[in-house]
Amino acid sequence: MKNFDDFMGMVMLDLPDAERLTLKGHFDTLAQSFAALDDIDTGDTQPLVSVLDLHNIMREDVASKITSRDELLKNSPGGGGGGDGYFHVPAAID
Amino acid sequence: MGLSVVLESSIMQKGLPATAGSKMLENFIAPVDATVVTRLEAAGVKISGRVDTSEFGAAGLFEDAAGGTATQGDGSLVFFAKTAQENRPLVLLCNDYTGGVSRAAVDAGLYYIQPSYGTVSRYGLIPSVGSMDQIGIVCENPEDGFEILEIISGYDAKDGVMLPNSSKTYEPQEVSSSFEIDIADMKSDYSGVYKQVMQILCSAELSNNISRYDGIKFGYRAKEYKDLNELYTKSRTEAFGEDVKLAAVTGAMVLYGDNYERYYNKAMCIRRLIKESLEFGEYDVIVSKCPILSRLCGLPSLSVPGGRVYTADALREDVLKAVSKSVINGNTSLTDDKELGGKIKAIRNQKSGE
């Protein structure tokens, strides 16, 4: 049985104690309120994945230039705008 | 056109900051113009300012959690939008998937128009909850709001979830602004679980959508970290706010293992039951004080000062336009809360009932 801390780890969060306690309280309240769904009989009802009755429409596979690589790299916090054309990340292998 | 609009910070304008109200995107500069921006500029509408949304629009999502201590609506967005617009009538474009902005808007004496899902392009909108993300309109005058809606709506190939059958999906028709006092209870009422269904679906989708924020490609990066995993974790922990963290954890829970069937899949089934319970055809407008219905079902709605929310069938913004005229003209059958009694009701349009 997974608990709050397990789910927190799954989404890559590591909350300080005070914040963890506050959010765990909200989380427990939400989980209790979700039990209200158990009382509703959905029978053979299919899940509503999309509110629109759409079928896949494939557009022409034509390349288009929306923006430049340099422009996108400018938003990288690791110095991607430094001009070498790469995202910069810490070493993953010692 | 003399109108000008204010944009919420989740709507991109090329070269300008687009933060979606999050520290995670505090330094993010939009690389493109959103389609709504392109269309407004092409129509000569001035974009007069940008205002911060609540973080990824999540304010109000958990307002009932833990005794109501979580955030309530998004009044600050509306307040700052009014300031940004100075002495002009306010028209604000924003993504209000929780209904929090519309609540704040009507509290401030404003109107909120939620378009039919799939009629206004989300290209250039920072995504939060894909199945409900929809750019809507806060306005002082509904006429201004519907005028802007005509400009921004219509098919856009850059958004993969749009109604493709028309190049212009919002086409106002002539609808009588007289409404009969023919108010009826809905045969099936799932309003008791709207909130839970909304919270489950939004948490799941928002949790997935924000998984892209890892401190690598864009967004905030923690200053100190030992390795790649700590970079991810510290960046997300330091940058996300309380509502978004709660959505992330709750989303992981409702999607995990057996919980998927119990919570997420069940919420999607109830969402279908809710949509199928609406009896458009017999009635024209569903009336409630809850904006969630239109978000869950992808239907257009109009929230008016006083708190009433009128929801119409898909692509029937024309009916809502008629409702707005009727409300402004003082049709008390549409505004008297004694008729509503806190429940969801349906109203027949006089012309279509003939």
Architecture overview:
The complex is a heterodimer of chains A (94) and B (354). By secondary structure, chain A is mainly alpha-helical. Chain A is built from 3 helices and no strands. Chain A has helices spanning 4-10, 17-34, 69-73. Chain A is flat. Chain B is of the alpha+beta class and 354 residues long. Helix content of chain B is 35%, strand content 11%. Chain B contains 12 helices and 10 strands. Chain B has a 10-stranded mixed β-sheet, sandwiched between helices. The two termini of chain B are 37 Å apart. The interface between A and B is large, with 51 and 75 residues.
Provide a compact summary of the structure:
The complex is a heterodimer of chains A (94) and B (354). Chain A is mostly helical.
Largest interface: A-B, 51 and 75 residues
Percent of residues of chain B in beta strands? 5-15%
Number of helices of chain B: 12
The H-and-E topology of chain A, N to C, reads as HHH
The overall average pLDDT of chain A, rounded, is: 87
The proportion of residues forming helix of chain A, as a percent range, comes to: 25-40%
* H/I helix tally of chain A: 3
Strand arrangement within the widest β-sheet of chain B reads: 2-1-3-5-4-8-9-7-10-6
Distance between the termini of chain B: 37 Å
Distance between the termini of chain A: 35 Å
Q: How many beta-strand elements of chain A?
A: 0
The overall average pLDDT of chain B, rounded, is 84
Topology of this structure?
The complex is a heterodimer of chains A (94) and B (354).
Chain A: H1 4-10, H2 17-34, H3 69-73
Chain B: E1 4-8, H1 35-42, E2 46-51, H2 75-85, E3 91-95, H3 100-107, E4 111-114, E5 135-139, H4 142-152, E6 184-185, H5 194-209, H6 228-239, H7 242-255, H8 259-277, E7 285-288, H9 292-297, E8 301-303, E9 309-311, H10 317-328, H11 332-335, H12 337-340, E10 345-347
Parallel strand pairs in B: 1-2, 1-3
Antiparallel strand pairs in B: 3-5, 4-5, 4-8, 6-10, 7-9, 7-10, 8-9
Helix pairs in contact in B: 2-3, 5-7, 5-8
